[in-house]
Amino acid sequence: MFRTVCFSLALTLLVSVPILAQGENDDDTDKAAASAGSPPPFATTDIGDIWHWVRHRNQEQREQALGRRFVVIAPTIGSKPTTGLTAGFNSNMAFFAGDQASTHISTMSGGFRVSQKQQVLSGVRYSVFTANDRWFLQGDNRFSWTSQNTFALGTDAGAIGATNLKYNFFRVGETTYRSVHRGLFVGGGLIVNVHDDVRPGDGAQAAYDQSAYLKYSEEHGFSAEGQTSSGANFAVLYDTRDNAINAQKGWFANVALRTYFDGFLGGDSTWQQLFLDVRTYRKLTANGRHRLAFWAMSDLVLSGSAPYFDLPSTGSDGRSARGYGDGRYRGERLVYGEVEYRGAVTPSGLVGVVLFANTTSIGSIETGTRLFESWAPAGGFGFRVLLNKRSRTNLATDYGWGKAGSSGFYLGIQEAF
Predict the structure, then answer these.
(1) What is the DSSP string of 236-262?
(2) pLDDT tops 60 at residue 5
(3) C-alpha 114: how far from chain center
(4) How many domains would you assign to the chain?
(5) Where is average pLDDT lowest: 82-86, 104-108, 370-374, 381-385?
(6) Longest Cα separation, the chain
(7) N or C: lower Cβ tally within 10 Å for the chain?
(8) On the CB side of 130, how many CA atoms lie within 13 Å of its CA?
(9) Cα–Cα distance for residue pair 90/85, rounded to 1 Å
């Protein structure tokens, strides 16, 4: 595993560095930050600086090469229980759609990976603020041909009896917000989740008839071959973070009511979901090189019957519950919390380290498990390499451990939260 980490870091940096010259002038960033009443970015050296130093380019030459957008296209290697070893690429673009003094930074990211478990994983996410934060556009779209071990519901579900299922997964999630006050947005949108061609994985045919997935689907009248949830998303968002990619201070809060309808765009049932997401960030030092990040989240099925794969679960957002595979714990009600220390290792801020701890509790009507009766804690550490000090984008590598021997290695080019 150590060799995998080192190799993936070296490969990512090797391919990413030439693209980093597209970052924007750091002097412009400092001026914009000062006009907004906040200090300039905490780091003084990033990979772009190193690249230009290696090429013996002076500051004037570098400024001539700088553009308005920062783009990274990088290979990535990772490993976690759901996928095993994965290889592919991730891309990220950060930009300002308006005056930096009055407009949040926007980000768009996407990736394509294949895994040793014969999975193909791809997706595109974006968070775009228009000029002066008048509108905020958010999207989470995924297209995967994948597999997952399925378990009984609740956080006390053991690994015995797990059944591997293969399926195709398609998600379209689009929400448009309108600013109603500084930092406050209201909006709505569309969300569609399709799990199609569900079938036993390799060697799982004998256990399929007793699987938690099949039992749940039969009890709630869902087809075992595929299930769809389609509906509307109504949301309120509050965001005072100084940087959405890697915040040093501020608050983020999102409340979303999602209503799915039987028959709408192929939906198989009518049910309602309430999603709550709160994050805050605190500096431990004045320059922001040492800080704490806090994350609390709740995902609740309010009424109706959700398809099995759409039930709240660990890692369903692709970022939470580091230390566990996606869907390891699942149920109708989920509460999640995480705290992370983020610190600079080098005086320049080029290299950083994180320490994190998280825990999940799941309640299930099916099994009679109540929220907070059992927990799935996890923790770990990671390293950061600053790719661009303008956008505060890091190359992030994390290793996490959970209970019952669960563990995972994660590599990306954006913070978990």
Answers:
(1) EEEE--S-SSS-SSEEEEEEEEEEE-T
(2) no
(3) 18
(4) 1
(5) 82-86
(6) 68
(7) N
(8) 9
(9) 15
Q: Which residues of 48-75 are buried (b: 16+ CB within 10 A; e: fewer)?
A: bbbbbeeeeeeeeebeeebeeebbbebb
Residue 54 lies in a domain: yes
Task: Identify which of 296, 371, 285, 373 has the alpha carbon closest to the alpha carbon of residue 334.
Answer: 371
Amino acid at 379: G
Residue 354: inside a domain, yes or no?
yes
Burial of 287 (0-12, 13-18, 19+ CB in 10 A): middle
For 182-320, where are the E strands, in sequence order?
184-200, 227-239, 250-260, 271-283, 290-304
Tens-place pLDDT, residues 93-135:
889 998 888 999 999 999 899 998 889 999 999 999 999 999 9
Are 332 and 311 spatial neighbours (Cβ–Cβ below 8 Å)?
A: yes
> Which domain does 45 fall in, by range?
2-412
- Using alpha carbons, list the distances in angstroms from residue 25 to 64, 70, 351: 9, 10, 21
| Spatial separation of the C-alpha atoms in residues 362 and 367, rounded to whole Å | 11
3-state helix, strand, coil in the chain (%, to 5): 15, 50, 35
* CA atoms of 34 and 55, how far apart (whole Å): 31
381 token code pair: 């550490």
Using the Cα atoms of residue 212, residue 216, residue 219 and residue 225 in order, give the sign of their dihedral. negative
Which pair of structure tokens corresponds to residue 377? 């804690």
Residue 216 domain-assigned (yes or no)? yes
- CATH number of the domain residue 117 falls in: 2.40.160.50
Q: What is the DSSP letter of 68?
A: S
Flag whether 417 is in a domain: no
